[in-house]
Specification:
Layout lengths: L7 H6 L2 H21 L5 H10 L4 H11 L2 H10 L15 H37 L4 E6 L2 E7 H26 L1 E2 L13 H11 L2 E2 L10 H28 L6 E2 L19 H22 L10 H29 L2 E2 L1 H8 L8 H10 L4 H18 L3 H6 L2 H7 L1 H6 L10 H6 L4
Helix pairs in contact: 2-3, 2-6, 2-8, 4-5, 6-7, 6-11, 7-9, 9-10, 9-11, 10-11, 13-14
Amino acid sequence: MLERYMRKEMEDIWSRQRQFETWLDTEKAVVEAWNFVGEIPTDDYQKIEENASFDIDRIDELEQITHHDVIAFTRTVSESLGDEKKWVHYGLTSTDVVDTAQSIRIKQANDIIEKDLIDFSNELKTLAIKYKKLVVVGRTHGIHAEPTTLGLKFLRWYSETQRNINRFKQVRKEIEVGKISGAVGTFANVPPEVEERVCERLGLGVQDISTQVLPRDLHANYMSELALIGSEIEEIATEIRALQRTEINELREGFAKGQKGSSAMPHKRNPISSENVSGLARVLRGEMVTSFENINLWHERDISHSSAERIILPDATALVDYILNRMTNVLRGLVVNEDAIKRNLEQTHGLIFSQHILLSLIEAGWSREDAYDTIQPITMRVWETGVSFKDLLLKNNRIVGSIGKEHLTQLFDLNFHLRNVDKIFARFDM
């Protein structure tokens, strides 16, 4: 991942230093487990626990000879020990260490992402409550439809974030697992008790069955959830971008002192953060596809997934962390232009109340078809001339005769569209 899109905490997790630290943690946990079941003498275990270490330069040097990163690692570790080195990697295959250690790092990344999701959710909740009753025009197909509230927009995203949090917690349980089951997963050279002890020490669950590798549907499901999180971020970003357009101007990203919008046009204030996360969300979805391709391995394993995962797992977790933080900051600095909101509500001269008129005529005894066909030509005149919809309706004797001038005027009250907002909010623990 480019440093530009990776925050320091996540960068540390996916560093080579942390990679080998987690490999060593796994190797030590295995030695401790072998000691627990009575296979390795306590003295040898304690020497390995206290003295085993690695040097990345030496690993690189040995890998040039062995062309095998795990062998280069275990030989480097052995060089830091005495005769007890014979127990390093005892009964294991490479992926016992690699997959289990990778799950440790995924768990560490997940701690960050879950916190990010909660912070993001709290910001949406704050905005939902703050703008609960601020009426804005709703749009379907990009066209003015009926009034809604800005708070309901944020509440809908808050709800979606709660689903993402719940899904993420579930997928964490699936992906944060280890396997210490040997070359093809049969426990021929290492008993299940060792696996259980290792995973307990490392804070991981135990995968119920594996081959030489953890099943890759686990990783595909995990990547799917990361892509869903990214897609929600893009959904919100797209709405902000659309509402920041000059002719709408209802929402704007904050603009810092000294910030520039365009190298050519000094007046520009562009939604750069929303555009940025929209693009990165697309990358996330592409990496999800790769994770699905990784499910299909030959027999008990091949390594076609390995090279891909060295890219997509650090990338995806780093991107989710980055875009959640960036969009949270956008929400914290969001500018709400209430004057533009009011102007846009009035832009169609009352047409946003057309369904309310339609239903009132039906309640007065008209057929739906008759009411619709009577109202629609009037709405077309409003589109063409800009004359007030209410004024044209008041000139229609048949409509006025059915529902009366006073009631007709009351049908243009925005508060009608707020009457169930409290009930919607009551569905949430806010």
